[in-house]
Write a structure and sequence with these properties.
This protein is of the alpha/beta class and 340 residues long. The chain is built from 14 helices and 12 strands. Strands 6, 7, 8, 9, 10, 11 and 12 form a 7-stranded mixed beta sheet that branches. Strands 2-1-3-4-5 form a 5-stranded parallel beta sheet, with helices on both faces. β3, α8 and β4 form a beta-alpha-beta unit. The longest helix is centred in the N-terminal third of the chain and has 17 residues. It is elongated and about 80 Å long. The protein starts with a helix and ends in an 8-residue tail after the last strand.
């Protein structure tokens, strides 16, 4: 019986015969690979619906406007949050049946020339490019070229100044830095002592704004706390581990660490190995499986994050000229962790 049912299922060839077209044309219509005449589109969809190859909702979607094609550029490396953004972005499109197609690409996140090249390269075959911006002249030029070509440039998580980008999607990073400073100052009992900052790189405006916000509030509210020089770990867990290990060895009076960027697991490893994880206030960014675990065991005290689904939904809406809501900054401690 099962084999009989399989034999009765319609095929692309059946749809082509009923519509009076080739199988290649049916493939183009059903997978929207290239434009076809309206009359041909109607013939193929009517045939596919009549045969039960697709249902009415799929017909409606295929009759609608061509999906917007978007390229998502993310820095490669060991940052778990960016891997999560990529994973959730693709799942979000499928789950919500957005009229969008997304291809993601991981590039060198600290090379402005490669980012500019990637914006040009992947922008050719896309209607818009979503990317973490590096605040650099070569990137501004690439953005302006993309916009001049009639395409959308959407900056994600980190913005760029004085460019023609269409929209920025992300939290207020200056406020995020001030929030981290307030947490460390209050959790550590107003000092005295040293606080260390670890960032990916100041070429990201997001990280620079977080650092400026952090330093400003520490100076305003917690004069007994001294901030050591910022280390750049390039969102790499090994670099973050090495920086933290050296900081802990050289500064026994450290009372807090603020990870401005990602890959907090490297910092957590150094804290645990030093035996000081429960004594040092540790604030970071990005709610992922590793930061969840560190919140639960007390290695981290708080995580500032932005929901990947909302980030990507807002990015797609911006690319489609739909209204976008501001991205809320979310703050999690061990006691209010949401379900995964």
């Amino acid at each position: 019986m099962a084999s009989e049912r399989r034999r009765t299922l319609p095929t692309v060839s059946d749809v082509a015969r009923r519509a009076g077209t080739s199988t290649a044309t049916v493939d183009r219509v059903l997978n929207r690979r290239s434009p076809v005449r309206e009359s041909t589109l109607r013939q193929v969809l009517d045939a596919a619906l009549a045969l039960g190859y697709i249902d009415a909702s799929q017909v409606e979607a295929l009759r609608g406007p061509e999906p917007i094609k978007l390229a998502l550029l993310l820095p490669r490396g060991t940052n778990p949050y960016l891997a999560l953004v990529n994973q959730r972005a693709r799942a979000f499109v499928e789950r919500n049946h957005l009229n969008a197609r997304v291809k993601s690409f991981f590039i060198d996140g600290f090379d402005p020339d490669e980012l500019a090249h990637s914006i040009r390269k992947f922008g050719k075959g896309a209607d818009g490019v979503i990317f973490m911006a590096i605040d650099h002249p070569t990137v501004r030029v690439a953005i302006d070229e993309l916009v001049t070509a009639g395409k959308k440039a959407i900056t994600l998580i980190s913005d760029i100044s004085s460019s023609r980008r269409h929209a920025y999607v992300g939290i207020d990073n200056f406020a995020a830095g001030r929030t981290a400073a307030m947490l460390i100052g209050r959790f550590s009992g107003h000092g005295p002592g040293q606080v260390a900052l670890i960032a990916a790189s100041r070429i990201y405006r997001a990280h620079l704004e977080r650092e400026v916000g952090f330093l400003g509030l520490i100076e305003e509210r917690f004069p007994n706390i001294t901030v050591s020089a910022t280390r750049e770990g390039h969102d790499d867990r090994t670099e973050n581990y090495q920086h933290t290990k050296k900081l802990l060895e050289g500064h026994p009076d450290i009372i807090g660490i603020y990870n401005v960027g990602g890959s907090s697991d490297g910092i957590g490893r150094a804290l645990r190995e030093s035996g000081r994880a429960q004594d040092i206030t540790f604030i970071g960014h990005g709610l992922t499986s590793d930061t969840r675990a560190m919140l639960a065991d007390g290695t981290m005290d708080a995580v500032i994050t932005q929901d990947p689904d909302r980030l990507f939904e807002a990015s797609v809406n911006a690319a489609m000229d739909k209204e976008t809501r501001p991205i809320a900054m979310e703050l999690y401690l061990a006691e209010n962790l949401p379900q995964e």
